[in-house]
Design a protein that fits this description.
34% helix, Aspartate Aminotransferase, domain 2, 10 helices, seven-stranded mixed beta sheet, Aspartate Aminotransferase, domain 1, alpha/beta
């Protein structure tokens, strides 16, 4: 397959107004970027231990509490390193002895791998299901943490977040929400830790992790800290909790990431909060899956409609249409990052539908794909 795309020009009136459909990093709203050169210009390059940076962190924490309607006692905790760092943090600071992990894609497997490598913990219980589906948690005595994934970014599968029926009373539910947070609905009563990075639905850069934590999760952190378990300073969740309460991070954060995340968050809140953001994702999902079900050469990869993600769509193509070539033509026309997850190995496109992405741009994308496929045939 040549690296160059076939010479196909998509008519301008078919193209999306904004051609960014990456599943992470995601589209950042132009007004948010412009704000960096305005009010943000006075903040970038200043100390994160002082105002006004601490007020930005405070706005992020308060805004997330409002967006998710967090119950009393829940806290917003943040630190550097992204979701990858948080898997290690949770391995040290949240799993007491035995955890269960739902594995149904590339990213939902990574937390389990971190726990498997930890010699101070029991081997984790891993529940798997075929690619394109999700498994269900299975309550088992002695399991002190259940690791769920709200949305599997690699496959476009979403699952409802709920506590396993019959789980031990002190068991925690920790949910990887990196490609779900602010785009999929969730009940805070169903989780103890809901963690994510801001480069997807919060339309920011990476390098930061955020965790919405229940009183039970905060108590677990204190318990393991008091037990004397060794924790590297960078991964010490108790330190992150203490610093977050002061509206700062343990070490220097990327201020641009904070500013972009706050801008997106406050844009969401000013337009109606979770109903607004999830409504946009719902509409985009309705458009792309409806198109895929009607197109003679395409179909949704995820078979069950209620498991099809509303933030990341995976669309299979018939064998006679090469999705990689379609993606190259789209990219040559300024429509980028529609390629499938590299390790999934399917003839498909993967399209982000995060809140910052206009549903009408999703519609324009489908029209552009139809044009390209027709031109290739």
């Amino acid at each position: 397959m040549p690296d160059t795309a076939p010479d196909i020009t998509i008519p301008r009136d078919l193209l999306p107004a904004d051609g960014r459909f990456g599943s992470g990093p995601s589209k950042v709203r132009r007004s948010a970027v412009e704000a960096l050169a305005g009010p943000g210009g006075a903040i970038i390059g200043t100390s994160h231990r002082h105002e006004p940076v601490r007020s930005v962190v405070g706005r992020l924490r308060a805004g997330l509490s409002e967006l998710f309607h967090l119950p009393d006692g829940y806290e917003v905790v943040l630190g550097n390193g992204g979701t990858t760092a948080f898997w290690d943090i949770a391995t040290f600071c949240l799993v007491e002895r035995h955890s269960q992990h739902l594995r149904f894609g590339e990213f939902s497997s990574k937390f389990a791998a971190a726990v498997q490598a930890a010699p101070w913990l029991d081997a984790p219980d891993v529940v798997e299901s075929p690619t394109g589906t999700h498994p269900q948690a299975e309550a088992r005595p002695g399991t002190d943490l259940y690791a769920l994934t709200h949305n599997e970014t690699s496959t476009g599968v979403m699952m409802e977040v709920r506590r396993p029926e019959g789980a031990d009373a002190d068991a925690l539910v920790a949910v990887d929400a990196t490609s779900a947070a602010a785009g999929l609905r969730v009940d805070p009563a169903a989780f103890d830790v809901y963690y994510f990075a801001p480069q997807k639905s919060l339309a920011s850069d990476g390098g930061l992790w955020v965790a919405l934590m229940s009183p039970a999760a905060l108590a677990r952190v204190d318990k393991l800290k008091a037990s004397g378990r060794f924790v590297p300073a960078f991964l010490d969740l108790s330190s992150a909790v203490d610093n977050s309460r002061l509206d700062q991070t343990y070490n220097t954060p990327a201020l641009v990431t904070l500013l972009l995340a706050v801008d997106q968050l406050e844009w969401a809140l000013s337009n109606g909060g979770m109903g607004f953001t999830c409504g946009r994702c719902d509409r985009s999902a309705e458009i792309i899956y409806g198109w895929a079900e009607q197109a003679p050469y395409a179909s949704p990869f995820v078979a069950k409609p209620d498991e099809r993600s509303h933030t990341v769509a995976t669309i299979d193509f018939a064998d006679e249409v090469d999705a990689a070539t379609v993606a190259k033509v789209l990219r040559a026309n300024g429509v980028v990052d529609t390629e499938p997850y590299r390790r999934l190995g399917r003839n498909q496109l993967r399209v982000a539908m995060y809140p910052a992405i206009e549903p009408e741009d999703i519609r324009a994308l489908t029209a552009s794909i139809d044009y390209v496929v027709s031109a290739l045939s």
